[in-house]
């Protein structure tokens, strides 16, 4: 993949910045070498490369090398480190939890799942990290931007919290977060929807009496559920298990689609 984000003028400016950085680090660099490095970095954004050059001036001891710049550009692409990625992956075990995860986390989790299902959590973690680092390296080598997506859980309130947190951490844009809420029937385009979307926007709006009545209905249903007979509870558990199986099947299809996409672009 070589989709340049810089025009010729920006590449020339970047070459000059590389020369200046090398000079600030006590090194003389041939303009032709700097131009070659700038061409190699042109698939990334100007701001990302300039931030990496600044980091090199403070952190690198010795001569400026292409590997130093590239390492810092890639580390700032928004992909979580291996330990955070594993923690995110583990939250998918709770079928009620809505999880915001990257393509690489989902692929690595699929690779580690047989070990995890066998009950070897330590081995599963090792398998996950090995696969995750491989998928991340491949994505970065292809200059593929990070892609965060939502795996929806059964608990509607947790959906709102998970998507709101993802927006706050800038993992998904605010507009996309509001669309997620709308698609999940959490934030319809009404005064009630704006009240829920206020969790993201900060705007405070009162829900209508109709929504308050619906909430009372939910509360009544919960009370009824608590009073349900043992037989009905078993039926509800079976229904929940079927829903979980459908969710896992959907996740598996997504993994297969991601994997097939990698093969076709490999």
TrEMBL record:
This is Prophage PssSM-02. It comes from Pseudomonas mohnii. It comes from the Bacteria.
């Amino acid at each position: 993949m070589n989709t340049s984000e810089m025009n010729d003028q920006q590449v020339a400016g970047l070459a000059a910045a590389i020369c200046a950085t090398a000079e600030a680090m006590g090194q003389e660099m041939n303009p032709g070498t700097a131009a070659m490095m700038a061409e190699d970095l042109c698939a990334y954004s100007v701001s990302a490369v300039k931030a990496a050059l600044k980091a090199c001036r403070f952190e690198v001891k010795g001569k400026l090398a292409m590997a130093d710049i590239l390492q810092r550009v890639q580390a700032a692409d928004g992909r979580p480190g291996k330990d955070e990625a594993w923690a995110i992956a583990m939250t998918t075990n709770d079928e009620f939890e809505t999880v915001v995860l990257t393509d690489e986390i989902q692929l690595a989790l699929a690779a580690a799942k047989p070990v995890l299902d066998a009950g070897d959590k330590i081995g599963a973690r090792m398998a996950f990290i090995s696969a995750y680092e491989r998928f991340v390296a491949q994505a970065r080598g292809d200059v593929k931007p990070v892609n965060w997506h939502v795996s929806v859980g059964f608990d509607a309130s947790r959906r709102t919290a998970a998507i709101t947190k993802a927006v706050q951490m800038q993992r998904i844009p605010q507009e996309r977060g509001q669309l997620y809420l709308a698609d999940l029937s959490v934030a319809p385009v009404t005064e009630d929807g704006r009240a829920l979307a206020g969790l993201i926007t900060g705007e405070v709006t009162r829900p209508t009496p109709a929504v308050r009545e619906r909430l009372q209905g939910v509360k009544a249903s919960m009370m009824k559920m608590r009073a349900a007979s043992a037989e009905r509870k078993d039926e509800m558990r079976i229904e929940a298990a079927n829903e979980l199986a459908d969710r896992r099947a959907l996740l598996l299809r997504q993994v297969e689609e991601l994997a097939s996409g990698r093969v076709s672009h490999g």
